[in-house]
């Protein structure tokens, strides 16, 4: 097909040459010209044909790329041993088939190996355990107890607050039955056993909205209709990632950040995280310049940035974002036309004198474009009820709310829990006492713990929120690198039996930083912890 | 090919020829040859250069396509509204005029989810929840027959709760340990106590013929996330599952929304009493494969929702053979296992696997307490799998849908109260059967036939005589009349992807016995007008 026009365009020209032929000088001109002329026809065809071929090649490759991938999956480690001998496995299975069904005959027809899991979860299954999760597991196996197991591992890696559990317990002991069943029993059983709205009961949303504005010191009023409730803040973050970004898009996240984000944001959504490094020189506070740099780099790499995820009060550092930073962030987001996800789950756990400013407050005050701001909240930290799995998405974007409401079918809160919490949060006296007492206790623990570390020569970044201190142990690490940091972490976990979170798990750019969660301890534990750290620091100093 | 051959042949000659120019006869050879030679160089360059250009063109188009689509809808009138907005004197605000600013967009996948409901299933549910029927306070409200919920035994649950709630929460002695056991972080895939209790309950419900291994369980906040999690684990974006129709309308959301997995309907017909045939399965498999979609499994509900029939043991064997032959997974949704009321015997996939030497790795069972213990509000669901990789992944994924520890505690003590469980199962079975008989008999007097069923909370009724035209349109017209004139919310067959028009799913366990005459009266009114019209 394609060759025929080629030869046809060429054929008239030799005839022309024949009539003119003979002149040697003319030839010098003609021959190259002829080449050009011929080349012209060739140029068109020579362009179209390879293009078409190249296009089909790409098409072919695209089609077939999937299949080799699948073969890789089934060959993935863990299944290797079984795939190697599919036929023998098959033979071995046959004696088991005692049944004489007609279709058994069909089975040997096609090759069958063990059935594989999907490619996207094979990564999750293998997922190399980060120190964060390794440490948590170690604690579970051998938890410290003052009396029963004084040599166990002390848990300081889980952001959990046990300081005020007694208050919750007292309340529950007095109110649990009335809270769940109400007083008119017949009526309310229908209210807890039957299907409920997936995104939470309206009464519960009202109660949560009230609690949120109380925690944020009345500075904001949350509209219950803008709230979507989920089973914990983890799914709240995942749902927002689904709603704001498509697979392959990215979020900017200032480092160091909460290690769980890597799972919550990336695993199922296919969204990427672009790190925005913060440094100790700035007290790990976010700078817009770094944000801008990360944004441009990501853009250059062809990645579409859909938003910023911040934690305020930050986890792990525990510092707060100033009003000015929040304004700059909003401006930045508007300039780039991206979203802001503000994780304010620790809003009620501030313990310093500094005042917490919620993103909700800023967008309340200003006439800014509210549709790009989404707040994540929950009761796991502020009410110390992580076991109850209550998370909140607060957004002013109707589309996000509509999609999130529908997606909560996959992570809804059980009705008895909601009923119980409605009456707990409606008990204004209890809530007020809890918030005040909890803040006092956090403050006291924080001062004691940081003081203890200081005595050992370990400095912490000044923090005003959360259950942790972010300690600089770079003096104790053998080499100023991630490797050195992990070596120290290993020593802390296995020799001192302290589970702490190394900075590298939080993607901190500087080695030697560690997150110590002190709210899981009692005051009596602090000397034990300090003694154990001292032991390690002596070992480290001996070695160096 | 022929072209290259002709080039290679004359290759050495041009050099010879060019040395003796001037001869006209030689020219005849030289000129075309020269062209070919130049053409050869040209052929290489002419291939490479356009290829490269074409490649860059594609790259350019790809890049610009995404950025265009971003700013497309919001771009009109970008500058003027923004000027009005900026009242603050922040230093950075002068930067704003630089970039193109419009309202920020949500992701395209969320966009399709955020769209208002278009399925009659969800429209009906919304309508019924806005204006619910109540015998006394709202006798003209919409009667809910569209939601599979069992309210027949609430009295038993209420009684148990009022007697045992405080004890189960706080421990009998009001112990210290119990409180931290519910407020602190728990394993995201469920506590061991609940898994043990569930194992006991499941084998009791399934007739005591199977035993379940707690270590193979992953607990989720309802069966809905259990199905979604399994889809994530078994299929990649663009893969597909085979699903026999009619199927539960929620599958379209559970399976497809976030996972990007497709559902391929395998049609069952009324002539077979909507029982699945392997031939139909095979046909659907081959057709899908031809279209280039990869099938990763079969998604079954047994007992079937909406029809309420069971898969026979023979059928389960055939399915397992089919799955092995095609090397695909089987997800068996057995959430209705405990709602049996007929004499037929329910056979769980787990039982078949127990008795034979099958490759268990490909079988995954979904279960939950929403139907069998009528506790949908508690959100307790389960994945029971024999595949270690699936279990490992599912355990990690339950961080997104874990059950509240308080609820777990409550359910554990409920399930361990064997006296209560026995009483509940027996009473519930009797009441469901009684309601079903009454309801089916009522429909029969109206000339409406139901498919044979032996489990579940609904009957699958053939109203094809009442529809104005034998098509999906006719069916939806009747559904609309039932919802808006008769004020009865039923699920039309088309929402369940039934291939034959005129079938409706009516759930009878949300009713009280006194409501049945009301429902029948309302249906009769619609039936009368329908027959008048036709």
TrEMBL record, chain A:
Region spans: Disordered: 1-26, 67-95
Ion transport is among the record's keywords: no
Positions of the Aminotransferase class I/classII large domain: 154-533
InterPro entries reported for this sequence: Aminotransferase_I/II_large, Ethylene_sulfur-biosynth, NHTrfase_class1_PyrdxlP-BS, PyrdxlP-dep_Trfase, PyrdxlP-dep_Trfase_major, PyrdxlP-dep_Trfase_small
Ranges of Polar residues composition bias in the record: 74-90
SUPFAM superfamilies membership: PLP-dependent transferases (SSF53383)
Matches recorded under Pfam families: Aminotran_1_2 (PF00155)
GO terms assigned for molecular function: 1-aminocyclopropane-1-carboxylate synthase activity; aromatic-amino-acid transaminase activity; L-aspartate:2-oxoglutarate aminotransferase activity; pyridoxal phosphate binding
Record-annotated membrane-spanning stretches: 42-61
PROSITE patterns per the UniProt record, alphabetical: AA_TRANSFER_CLASS_1
Ranges of Basic and acidic residues composition bias in the record: 10-20
Annotated keywords: Aminotransferase, Membrane, Pyridoxal phosphate, Transferase, Transmembrane, Transmembrane helix
Gene3D superfamilies the record matches: Aspartate Aminotransferase, domain 1, Type I PLP-dependent aspartate aminotransferase-like (Major domain)
Record flagged with keyword Flavoprotein: no
Similarity section: Belongs to the class-I pyridoxal-phosphate-dependent aminotransferase family.
Name of the protein in its database record: Probable aminotransferase ACS10
Organism, as annotated: Durio zibethinus (Durian)
Top-level taxonomy: Eukaryota, Viridiplantae, Streptophyta, Embryophyta, Tracheophyta
TrEMBL record, chain B:
Keyword Transferase attributed: yes
Keywords: Aminotransferase, Pyridoxal phosphate, Transferase
GO function terms (MF aspect): 1-aminocyclopropane-1-carboxylate synthase activity; aromatic-amino-acid transaminase activity; L-aspartate:2-oxoglutarate aminotransferase activity; pyridoxal phosphate binding
Domain Aminotransferase class I/classII large residues, every copy: 144-523
Coiled-coil parts of chain: none
Annotated region described as Disordered, given as residue ranges: 1-20, 66-91
Superkingdom of the source species: Eukaryota
UniProt xrefs under CDD domains: AAT_like (cd00609)
Gene3D superfamilies listed in its UniProt record: Aspartate Aminotransferase, domain 1, Type I PLP-dependent aspartate aminotransferase-like (Major domain)
Cell inner membrane is among the record's keywords: no
Family: Belongs to the class-I pyridoxal-phosphate-dependent aminotransferase family.
PANTHER family according to UniProt: AMINOTRANSFERASE ACS12-RELATED, BIFUNCTIONAL ASPARTATE AMINOTRANSFERASE AND GLUTAMATE/ASPARTATE-PREPHENATE AMINOTRANSFERASE-RELATED
Descriptive protein name: Probable aminotransferase ACS12 isoform X2
């Amino acid at each position: 097909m394609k060759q025929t026009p080629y030869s046809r365009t060429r054929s008239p020209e030799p005839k022309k040459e024949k009539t003119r032929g003979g002149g040697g000088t003319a030839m010098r001109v003609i021959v190259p010209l002829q080449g050009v002329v011929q080349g012209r026809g060739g140029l068109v065809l020579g362009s179209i044909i390879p293009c078409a071929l190249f296009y089909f090649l790409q098409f072919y490759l695209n089609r077939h790329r999937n299949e080799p991938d699948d073969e890789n999956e089934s060959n993935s480690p863990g299944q290797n041993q079984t795939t190697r001998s599919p036929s023998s496995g098959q033979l071995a299975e046959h004696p088991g088939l005692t049944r004489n069904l007609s279709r058994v005959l069909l089975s040997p027809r096609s090759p069958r190996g063990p059935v594989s899991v999907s490619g996207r979860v094979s990564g999750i299954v293998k997922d190399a355990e980060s120190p964060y999760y390794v440490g948590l597991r170690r604690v579970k196996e051998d938890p410290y107890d003052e009396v029963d197991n004084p040599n166990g591992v002390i848990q300081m890696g889980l952001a959990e607050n046990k300081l005020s559990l007694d208050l919750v317990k007292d309340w529950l002991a007095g109110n649990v039955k009335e809270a769940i069943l109400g007083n008119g029993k017949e009526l309310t059983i229908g209210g807890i056993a039957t299907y409920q709205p997936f995104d939470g009961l309206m009464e519960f949303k009202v109660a949560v909205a009230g609690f949120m504005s109380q925690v944020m010191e009345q500075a904001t009023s949350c509209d219950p209709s803008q709230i979507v409730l989920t089973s914990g803040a983890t799914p709240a973050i995942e749902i927002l990632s689904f709603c704001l970004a498509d697979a392959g898009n990215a979020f900017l996240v200032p480092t160091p950040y909460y290690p769980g984000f890597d799972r919550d944001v990336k695993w199922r959504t296919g969204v990427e995280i672009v790190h925005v490094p913060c440094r100790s020189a700035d007290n790990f506070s976010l700078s817009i310049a770094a944000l801008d740099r990360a944004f441009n780099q990501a853009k250059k790499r062809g990645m579409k940035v859909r938003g910023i995820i911040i934690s305020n009060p930050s986890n792990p550092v525990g510092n707060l974002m100033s009003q000015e930073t929040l304004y700059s962030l909003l401006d930045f987001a508007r300039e780039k036309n991206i979203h802001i996800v503000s994780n304010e789950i620790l809003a009620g756990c501030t313990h310093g004198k500094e005042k917490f400013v919620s993103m909700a407050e800023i967008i309340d005050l200003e006439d800014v474009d509210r549709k790009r701001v989404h707040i994540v909240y929950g009761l796991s930290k502020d009410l110390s009820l992580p076991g109850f799995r209550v998370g909140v998405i607060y957004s002013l974007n109707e589309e996000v709310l509509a999609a999130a409401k529908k997606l909560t079918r996959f992570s809804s809160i059980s009705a008895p829990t909601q009923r119980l919490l409605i009456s707990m949060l409606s008990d204004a006296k209890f809530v007020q006492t809890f918030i005040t007492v909890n803040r006092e206790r956090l403050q006291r623990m924080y001062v004691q713990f940081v003081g203890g570390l200081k005595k050992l020569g370990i400095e912490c970044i000044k923090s005003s929120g959360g259950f942790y201190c972010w300690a600089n142990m770079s003096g104790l690490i053998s080499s100023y690198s991630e490797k050195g940091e992990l070596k120290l972490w290993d020593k802390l976990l296995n020799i001192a039996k302290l589970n702490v979170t190394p900075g590298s798990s939080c993607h901190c750019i500087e080695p030697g930083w560690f997150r110590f969660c002190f709210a899981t301890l009692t005051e009596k534990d602090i000397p034990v912890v300090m003694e154990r750290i001292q032991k390690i620091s002596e070992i480290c100093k001996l070695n160096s | 090919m022929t072209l290259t051959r002709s080039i290679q042949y004359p290759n050495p000659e041009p050099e010879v020829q060019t040395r003796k120019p001037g001869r006209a006869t030689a020219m005849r050879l030289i000129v075309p040859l020269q062209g070919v030679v130049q053409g050869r160089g040209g052929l290489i360059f002419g291939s490479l250069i356009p290829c490269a250009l074409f490649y860059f063109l594609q790259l350019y188009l790809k890049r610009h396509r995404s950025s265009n689509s971003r700013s497309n809808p919001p771009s009109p009138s970008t500058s003027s509204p923004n000027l009005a907005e900026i009242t603050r004197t922040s230093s950075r605000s002068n930067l704003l005029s630089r970039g193109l600013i419009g309202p920020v967009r949500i992701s395209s996948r969320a966009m399709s989810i955020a769209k208002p409901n278009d399925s009659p299933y969800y429209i009906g549910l919304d309508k019924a929840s806005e204006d619910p029927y109540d015998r006394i306070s709202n006798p003209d409200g919409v009667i809910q027959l569209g939601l599979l919920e069992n309210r027949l035994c609430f009295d038993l649950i209420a009684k148990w709760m009022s007697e045992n709630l405080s004890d189960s929460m706080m421990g009998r002695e009001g112990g210290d340990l119990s409180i931290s056991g519910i407020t602190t972080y728990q394993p995201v895939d469920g506590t061991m106590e609940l898994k043990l209790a569930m194992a006991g309950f499941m084998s009791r419900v399934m007739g005591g013929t199977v035993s379940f291994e707690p270590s193979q369980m992953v607990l989720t906040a309802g069966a809905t996330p259990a199905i979604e999690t399994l889809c994530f684990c078994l299929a990649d974006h663009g893969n597909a599952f085979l699903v026999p129709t009619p199927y539960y309308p929620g599958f379209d959301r559970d399976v497809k929304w976030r996972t990007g997995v497709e559902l391929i309907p395998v049609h069952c017909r009324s002539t077979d009493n909507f029982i699945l045939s392997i031939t139909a399965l095979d046909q659907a498999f081959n057709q899908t494969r031809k279209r280039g979609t990869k099938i990763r499994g079969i998604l079954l509900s047994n007992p079937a929702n909406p029809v309420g029939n069971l898969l026979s043991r023979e059928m389960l064997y055939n399915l397992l053979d089919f799955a092995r032959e095609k090397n695909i997974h089987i997800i068996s949704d057995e959430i209705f296992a405990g709602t049996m009321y007929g004499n037929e015997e329910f056979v769980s996939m787990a039982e078949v696997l127990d008795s034979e030497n099958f490759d268990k790795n490909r079988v995954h069972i979904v279960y939950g307490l929403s139907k069998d213990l009528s506790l949908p509000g508690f959100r307790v669901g389960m994945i029971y799998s024999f595949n270690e990789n699936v279990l490992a992944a599912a355990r990690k994924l339950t961080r997104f849908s874990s059950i509240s520890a308080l609820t777990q505690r409550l359910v554990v003590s409920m399930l361990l109260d064997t006296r209560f469980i026995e009483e509940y199962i027996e009473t519930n079975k009797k009441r469901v059967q009684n309601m079903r008989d009454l309801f089916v008999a009522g429909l029969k007097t109206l000339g409406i036939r139901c498919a044979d069923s032996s489990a579940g909370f609904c009957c699958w009724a053939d109203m094809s005589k009442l529809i104005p035209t034998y098509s999906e349109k006719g069916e939806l017209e009747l559904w609309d009349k039932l919802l808006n004139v008769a004020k009865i919310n039923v699920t039309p067959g088309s929402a369940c992807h039934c291939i034959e028009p005129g079938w409706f799913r009516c759930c009878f366990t949300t009713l009280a016995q006194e409501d049945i005459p009301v429902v029948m009266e309302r249906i009769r009114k619609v039936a009368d007008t329908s027959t008048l019209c036709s």
